[in-house]
Amino acid sequence: MSDEWRANIDALEQTAHSMIALGGELDAADWARPTECPGWSVQDQYAHILGIERWLLGEAPDGEPRTVANTALDVEAFRSWPPDKVVGELRGVIERRVASLRSGAVDLAQVVTTPFGRDMPYGDFMAHRAFDVWMHEQDVRRATGRPGNLDGPAAEVSARILGGLLPLIVGKRARPEPGQSVVVETPGRCWCVEMGADRRGRLAEEPREPTVRLRMGWETFFRLGGGRVDPADAEVQITGDGDLAGRVLAGMAVTP
Fold first, then answer.
1. What's this model's pTM, rounded to 2 decimal places?
2. Pick from 22, 62, 87, 128: CA 20 to 30 A from residue 199's CA?
3. For residue 256, what pLDDT is reported?
4. Which of 118, 141, 161 is the last residue in one of the domains?
5. For residue range 96-148, what is the model confidence (pLDDT) as tens digits?
6. Do residues 64 and 143 share a domain?
7. Last residue of a domain, one of 122, 143, 161
8. Greatest CA separation for the chain
């Protein structure tokens, strides 16, 4: 097992355990609170994670593959369950999942088609599982007023995924002119994307005077990436080309 794949599994375990512990703090009103995922309550967030991880273990009873088109499948299936049963089931599923991943029972080098439609080695896919669980954990934390776990393994994996998608966001969605550059800054992190002559965006060294610089909080950054906040409502400091900045912000949502 590579160090990166091991870190991906560690990140999944860390955020899942954090989400399970958080579930033990919630009261009846908390479980019913709406979250930034349209139509989903706090309990629906837990149901989604439970359903996906149970399916990946081969324990889903319906035999249906999980895709971005049927994310409501597990949400609806577990809505009638008491919250403590959902959390208890999730705890057991995560224990079995992590044990399976670490034991060698899962071939991490096998290329699989992910629920979001991309093919990649299973070990790389685990980074996206950590990202998904962490994003939903943050949804629950914001909905219930319990901030936390904004740093650590799962946050680092999420930053790597979102930062790695900035060339796509800038190059294909914002479409600056060749030679123009976009710098995105959060506290402790900085990415620069430069538009090449072939009109492809690439991560690059930060120039002295980028075409546009976007400064924002870490939570604002991943909420934009997750489509959790309208760019017009996001607190972002813009320096430089305002039109290009607007196009970048409008294209930042990368999760379904």
1. 0.94
2. 128
3. 65
4. 161
5. 999 999 998 999 999 999 888 889 999 999 999 999 999 999 999 999 999 99
6. yes
7. 161
8. 57
